[in-house]
Amino acid sequence: MAEIDRNPGIPLDLSWVSSVSVNLPSVKRRAETLTTRRTVKKHWQAAWLLRAVTCIDLTTLSGDDTDGNVERLCHKAANPVRTDLLDGLGMTEAGITCGAVCVYPARVPAAVRTLKRLGVQVPVAAVATGFPSGQYRFKTRCEEISLAVADGAMEIDIVINREMALTGNWQGLYDEVKAMRAACGPAHMKAILAVGDLGSMTTVARASLVAMMAGADFIKTSTGKEGVNATLPVGLVMCRAIREYQQHTGIKVGFKPAGGIRTAKDALAWLILMKEELGDAWLNNHMFRIGASGLLADIERQLFHYVYGRYAAGSELPMA
Ligand SMILES: O=C[C@H](O)COP(=O)(O)O
Questions:
Q1: Is the pLDDT of residue 149 over 50?
Q2: Fold of 20-310
Q3: Residue 11: is the preceding peptide bond cis (ω within 30°)?
Q4: Which of 109, 187, 223, 313 is positioned for an S-S bond with 132, CB 3.0–4.6 A?
Q5: Binding-site residues, ligand 1, Cβ < 6 A
Q6: Phi, psi (5° rounding) for residue 13?
Q7: Which residues catalyse the reaction (predicted)?
Q8: Pocket of ligand 1, candidates 73, 222, 256: which has the most ligand atoms within 8 Å of its Cβ, to mutate?
Q9: How do strand 188-192 and strand 155-159 relate by DSSP bridges?
């Protein structure tokens, strides 16, 4: 993401924040029609799926992560699609990689080392600030950011303080996110709202705005650990907040749905949402990421089908 502009943020505008409200039935209706009114034509699907691959933050966030499995993840992020499939699609020279590798702070050194050894420009994203709950002291949450940046993370996925959003303490939330943004230094910051914890779509829309006002370069739906994670209706509300922020400030903020996105069909639905609500400027990995631990396997299976006309046996796509 190095070459794109950052979001410098703006002063907190409380009257704008409190003026926001969401009409839930109309959001649901719109989300339902998104994938029925518009589909991706068969002969474009492989191209869209390859685009989705380049937008994946290939993720492992498990208690039993080791340097070994993080190294394997980095190899996969550097070469996400088998060479024969790329040959079959005429994309051998396209240099397709995932958007980033996303890991816990303790795994950043292994990820940075491995990607450097592989010689690919895939950034390492670290979750930080007491991910996933954020229930830690402010000082240690900020220190986690600085340590991950010092270890070479170029992107930081912070979690917001849910209590502040739930109680409408927008000034407190703004101050925290702004301080986190300062701790990120040159690293790009994605603000995870943990939408499944926020109780209402209006709170999601207001928290989206406050995070952007405080300087978030991306807003992200979920940690993947809440009961409800990325859904199209919530994505729609967040994309509209991004659009409103751009209309008022001229600043483009990126979007990252994450949590439970597992199928090629899901990936296409999220791309359609981006195209319909934000336009082509968001159809790239500078402005759009999909946080996922298990999505790539299904995309590779669909690409195999596209190239060979049949689905692969498990043994034919072992890396997936
Ligand atoms: O930030 C990424 C999420 O933790 C990934 O969630 P997932 O494991 O459900 O794909």
A1: yes
A2: TIM Barrel (3.20.20)
A3: no
A4: 223
A5: 59, 61, 102, 223-224, 258-261, 291-294
A6: -115, 95
A7: 220, 256
A8: 222
A9: parallel
- Expressed in angstroms and rounded, the spacing between residue 291 Cα and the centre of ligand 1 is 6
DSSP 106: G
The protein residue whose alpha carbon is closest to atom 1 in ligand 1 is 291
pTM equals 0.96
As a whole number of angstroms, the distance between CA 79 and CA 102 comes to 16
Q: Is the pLDDT of residue 1 over 50?
A: no
pLDDT, mean of residues 253-275: 97
Buried/exposed code over 173-185 (b: 16+ C-beta within 10 A; e: otherwise)? bbebbbbbbebbe
Q: Is 74 left (phi over 0), alpha (psi -120 to 50) or beta?
A: alpha
Q: How far is CA 32 from CA 35, 130, 199, in A?
A: 7, 34, 21
User: Which atom of ligand 1 is closest in space to residue 220's alpha carbon?
Assistant: 1
The answer to whether 177 and 210 are in contact (CB under 8 A) is yes
Q: Which atom of ligand 1 is nearest to the CA of 292?
A: 10
How high is the mean pLDDT of the chain?
Answer: 95
Which residues have a catalytic role annotated?
A: 220, 256
CA-229 nearest atom, ligand 1:
9
CA of 187 to the centre of ligand 1 (A): 21
Name, of 36-40, 44-48, 133-137, the range with top average pLDDT.
133-137
